[in-house]
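User: I'll paste a sequence; please echo it back and then give the predicted structure.

Assistant: Echoing your sequence first, then the prediction.
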Amino acid sequence: MHTGKVIIAGAGPGDPGLLTLKTAQYLQKADVILVDRLVSEDILTTHARPDVECIYVGKQCRKGLSVPQPTINELMVLYARQGKLVVRLKGGDVSVFSNVLDELETLVAHGIPYEIVPGITAALGAAAYAGIPLTARGYATAVRLLTCYTSDVVPEAYWQELAQTNDTLVFYMSSETLEVVAANLVRYGIDAAKKLAVIQQATTPLQQVTVFDLYDPQQPWRNRAWKSPSLLIVGKVTALHERFGWLPDSNRDEHYFPPITEASALVVQQPKVA
């Protein structure tokens, strides 16, 4: 039987208008779409074929209802071996904090043809829609993409470097450990001119941007519940939001990407691929 192909594609950070033309073209051809949680429903209704088999394989950081990565790997191989064109649709860009290595290793191990299509990553989308140029001249020398999804993922020695660098810091999947991020940067003497911006549900109609002074004794970010996804930006560039932020904050307390629940979680018991 003819072996199909897997397209690993990025859907962008939220706004369906940020989808690339190439990904849109593949969605129009796809037989099967394996779609992440952080993908706008409008993308599928606008670009996918009416008869496509769309399978939700959402992940939610630290949530037990997430679809296991081995299940996603098996589904890619299963459908490709049936000769189908499979689009593995991920939020943001496929190469930034997306488990793409596991999927690539699976496809190579099983001889499945594949293609990688980039998307706009959350850091670039969030910064643009918040009016925060990440490497603005005179404010930053570079940008670092990081994660602190658990309190011990960043080595202790690295916190000191992060506190002293002139680079803009962007933390993915770190809203639940925001207090850890703030405490470590302050402990190592981060410049008081560098603020912390929390961008909730970036690039969507529900986007909200909050900028904090890391040395505020009240620590107003403590015990706050942030909508997922939320991105943290630390650096002098965050001060530019007040001047250049062009998208008004939403005052609606809603989820653009519905959280995973028992009803929405995919439970698939597929046979193991040989």
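The chain has eight helices and ten strands. Residues 265-274 have pLDDT under 50 and may be disordered.
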